[in-house]
Structure formats: C-alpha cells, structure tokens
Amino acid sequence: MATLSGGEAHRRPTMADVAERAGVSRTLVSFILDGKPRASEETRRRVLAIADEIGYRRDAAARVLAQGRSRTVGVLMDVQQMFEAELVTAIYPASRTLGYEVLLSANLRDQSESGFVDSLLSHRCGSLILLGPRSSQDYLVELSQRVPVVVVGRRLAGLAKVPGLLATVRTNDSKGMRMAVDYLVGLGHQDIHHVDGGEDPGSADRRRAYRAAMRAHGLADRITVIPGAHNEMAGAAAARQMLQAPSLPTAVLAGNDRCALGLLDVFTRAGVDIPGQVSLIGFDDSRLSDNPRIDLTTIHQDAETIGARSVEMAVEFLDESRTEPADVVLEPQLVVRSTTAPPRR
Predict the structure, then answer these.
(1) I need a surface site. Which of 136, 182, 189, 231 has the fewest CB within 10 A?
(2) Which one, of 159, 178, 155, 304, lies nearest residue 253 by Cα?
(3) Is 29 exposed, middle or buried (0-12, 13-18, 19+ CB in 10 A)?
(4) pLDDT in tens, 221-272
(5) In whole angstroms, what is the distance from residue 337 CA to residue 345 CA?
(6) Mean pLDDT along residues 83-90
C-alpha cells in the first residue's frame, strides 16, 4: 500500500506525494483530480487510488488562488426556519452538479447579519446565497458591488436599476395570499384574520395582499391583522389574544407554517375545534405540515426549484454569463388538507 513513511507520516500528504508514487507529473495529478480528460483510464484509476490510500485531499483555499476565482458558494440561513433547511437540502446537490462547493453559515437573530456575511467572504466564497436576509436593501446593494449576491424569499424594489450583481429568487407571496383568501371566501368565510410575520422577509407583501384580497371580496370591514412573526411563539400569542376576544374568527391566515403551528397548538389545547370552529392556513408547505397529526392547509413554495434556481443564478454571475440583476418569481400552489372547512352555520 502506498503510504507515507517515517517523518512523512506526521505531515499532510501533498499533490507532489501523489505524483511521486504514481510516477506522473504533478500537473497530470491536478488534471485528474479536477476531472479533466488528460489521462488514460488506467492512469486515472491509479492516481485516484494512491490519493485515497495516502489520505490526500485537495486544499480548497490553495485551489482558489491557483484558479484565480472561487468555486465556492456561501449560503447564509436561519437554522430555526424549517423551510430554509429544505432550501439548503436542495442547494447542495444543485451546486455540486455544477462543480461548486457550498460553505454554510448560520444566521442568528441576536447577532449581526453582516458579521456572518463577512465570515463567509473571509473563506473566499465567490458568491453568496442569502436565505431570507433581514438586512436593509441598501446594505444588500452595497454587498452586491463586492460579490455576486442571490437573495432568496424576499422582493427588492427597483432591482433592475441596481448597479451590482444582485438577483432575487422567490415565490409570488402576494399571489399566494390572494389564493388563500379566495379559497376561504369560497368556502363561505368572512371573518378571516391574518397573523402577519412582522418584519420578517415576505411579510409586507403577504400583509398587503391579504388586505387587498379582503377588499376585493367586499370584506374591508372584516380586515384584522394581528402583529406576529414567523415562529411558533408569535402564533401562540396571537391565538391567546383571539381567545380573549368576545368571539373567534371563523378562519385565520398565518404568516408561515411555524406561526400556524403555534396557533394550532394553543387553539386545540383550549378546546377549539380545528377546522370546525376555526379554519387555519399556513404558508411555505414545510415538510412538518404534511405530518398526519398536523395535516395543515398551506400555500406551497417549491423548495427544490427555489434552491436550484438560486444556485444557477449565483453560478451565472460567477462565470459571467449573467451581468445584470434578475428577479426570478415562482408560482405558489394552494395545498388543501384537513385544517380548513366551511364555517358552521
């Protein structure tokens, strides 16, 4: 077996070690490890086997310097958001299919978002995919003049005029909310409340769309927006607030699925029949929503397609096949499950 011996065993194997043992040039080893068709199949197999035997791994940082540009995409995510976890699950295979690596960073709400971005950049990420960033648009525009940026799940105003390499990939939040209101009204509901997402990404568009849809159905006097956030605690707080009111609405639209789960938990513990007394709709269609014990009616966002398109945009910026800003908007779908029904007469 081709192993390092003596004092060599205590250092990290190098490409030169692989070349020496395989009896080929260092350049040919580099071509083989990069997957370039410059060697016979027999030589390729021998080089890969020796690299594996001595434990050689490519130094990503050194490779970046040698190539002159990064093949790493930095991804920033909120680890508490289930839907963002599903996006990351789609981003990894999409990146590797295109020959890029992924460097992942958590985005913690009690710390500076820009600090996590700077950390990704310090690791020589060539482009960034930011999942639901909360930073100001001015910051995102400034950042896109330093490195290509893809913002996921958030609409940016005046994107076409942005001077940097900035793209958005998102679901049509407004259309999704209109679909939810239309569906509930079609079932016969009129007292429809909305627990919004506060300052979280996408919340403003969903809130505006709820108000507009209610007005379009002649229900302007029934509009009720309860301030919230995209988490279970906000949904639980909103449910307790509604339980203290003289009467319950017949339907509630949550800002996202996590908020809906908080509502569902408090309502059911209080003996409220879902959907007999109150119909409930979420937004995202995260995998937990399809759990048989939850079975949440929700607005579906296609995590796999959003993840793949985000990677495509980031790579197009890197290989310079795209030099202008872009806004990729995907269509939502209404997924009807067991938390909605016509109101009781």
Answers:
(1) 136
(2) 178
(3) buried
(4) 999 999 999 999 999 999 999 999 999 999 999 999 999 999 999 999 999 9
(5) 21
(6) 95
Domain residue spans of the chain: 15-58, 70-171+302-331, 173-301
**Separation CA 325–CA 231 (nearest Å):** 31
Domain 70-171+302-331 in CATH: superfamily? Response regulator (3.40.50.2300)
What's the CATH architecture for 173-301?
A: 3-Layer(aba) Sandwich (3.40)
Non-local (6+) Cβ contacts of 188 within 8 A are 342, 343
pLDDT for position 258: 96
Contact call for residues 264 and 274 (beta carbons, < 8 A): yes
- Is pTM beyond 0.85 here? no
CATH code: domain 15-58 is 1.10.260.40
Q: Are 276 and 341 in contact (CB under 8 A)?
A: yes
**Do the domains spanning 70-171+302-331 and 173-301 agree at the CATH topology level?**
yes
pLDDT of amino acid 1: 44
